[in-house]
Amino acid sequence: MVGATSDNGPVTRTLDAADVTRKALRQSLLVLVPVVVIAAVVGWFTSGAAGVWGALLGGAIAGSFLLVTLLSVLLTVKATPVVTGGAIMGSWLLKVIIVIAALALLRDLTFYSKTVFGVVVLVSIVVVLAAETRVVLKARMLYVDPSGTGQSDAR
């Protein structure tokens, strides 16, 4: 429990992978939404309605691309590492195909600002990755089994 004390000093609660992933997802959304809102306002003042559409599309593409990976990890957190890795790689491949198709569809359309779109995609990616990195670096997560019940074949 966080904040509790014992005879040996303060006791802190360690997080498991699901807790860290949920926290990263929550923090990512908490930083992505304001970035897109601010970008839409700036887009309005720089490019009018086309700037707003560019900001919304850029935030949607960048956000979905980044957040689907966290959802894949969260859905497979209890699975074996092979299954988790397969889910992450499969979702990555699917995201790449969808992003390429979306960009191909948007290429010739003129209702949005391509400049605002590009800037928002880049800023969203940097901000969301920074939030995810901060969560992971601050997580108190065990890397070994503290119970010591794991069996080793090495002799």
Automatic annotation (TrEMBL):
<protein>
    <recommendedName>
        <fullName>ATP synthase protein I</fullName>
    </recommendedName>
</protein>
<feature type="transmembrane region" description="Helical">
    <location>
        <begin position="29"/>
        <end position="46"/>
    </location>
</feature>
<keyword id="KW-1133">Transmembrane helix</keyword>
<feature type="transmembrane region" description="Helical">
    <location>
        <begin position="82"/>
        <end position="105"/>
    </location>
</feature>
<keyword id="KW-0472">Membrane</keyword>
<feature type="transmembrane region" description="Helical">
    <location>
        <begin position="111"/>
        <end position="131"/>
    </location>
</feature>
<feature type="transmembrane region" description="Helical">
    <location>
        <begin position="52"/>
        <end position="75"/>
    </location>
</feature>
<keyword id="KW-0812">Transmembrane</keyword>
